[in-house]
Here is the input.
Amino acid sequence: MSLLVLYGVLSIFFSFLCSILEAVLLSVTPTYINIKKREGKAFAKALELLKKDVDKPLIAILTLNTVAHTVGAILVGAEAKKVFNDQGNGVFIVSAVMTLLILVASEIIPKTIGATYWKQFAKSATQILNALIFFFKWTGIIWLLQLFTKLFGKAAHESVLSREDFSVMTEIAEDKGVFQKSETKVIKNLINFKEILVKDIMTPRTVVQTAFNKMSIKAFYEANQNLKFSRIPVFGETVDDISGYFLKDNLLEAIIKGNGAQALESIQRKLTVTTRNTSIANLFETLISKREHIALVVDEYGSASGIVTQEDVIETLLGLEIMDESDHVPNLQLLARKSWQTRAKRLGLIDEEE
Here is the structure.
């Protein structure tokens, strides 16, 4: 009877251990590993290697678990026959009890424990898994079984993290009270930052205030004393020939110094040029590196489509519409569409109902 109990306990114990190791291994996140690496934990690098080549630890776990179940069942069955003298009822009861114990004590309970307390078990699980891998690798079992896994799986494992995962994580964090709604909005906008193009946030040319570069500083100032914008693009022979821009501060400075008779081109600066299909992430890096605030947007033919500023990029990132005391229209793209519709209706291009 003692051997029957011993075989049963050993079988359940090794199966219990395998279930906890599997749950811990699959529950460990890349974030946790990186945190422990920065903290200087020695086991973190070994755990990272296990996660990167997850086939080896899984093969070791499943091999030991299968041996424990199979050999344990054979030994328990053989011993039960001896104890109960091949009587059907006794053997049946032992089989039923073992089945229940395997289900509850070696599957449900340990996997629940491992999935719940994986952080506490991460270090010890790493050490045990490396020992198992060493043993099975020495016997050649891992090498043999990996040949089969490569036939059905990919040689390299893809990252378990995706932009969609991070987006959902921020929503969960907001529900749990970790993030505020405004913080969640910023994080989700940042995740999709590189997917947004310049054409989606630029100010269209039709509502951009420009100036002829040969026009005198004084004449422009007298015509625009209530100037709303701090940076004004200037053009040459045609409005598509935008050659630069000037600062409102430089305009006022020239007036004060008595240089109003000079042309606007005397105070103009070079204008960074970008395309409509540039991502705003790349644009933002360009503006920061050049220490510029504004860029000219051109289409595939080189014609001016509009302008885009750092303010437009930051508004997109924050999900806010930044307005100061000089702004009167929050969305200039919407204004441009409404202006076009008004002109189109007047010219009969579209019906009033449209």
Q: What stands out?
A: The two ends are 90 Å apart (CA to CA). Residues 55-83 form the longest helix (29 residues). Residues 321-330 have pLDDT under 50 and may be disordered.
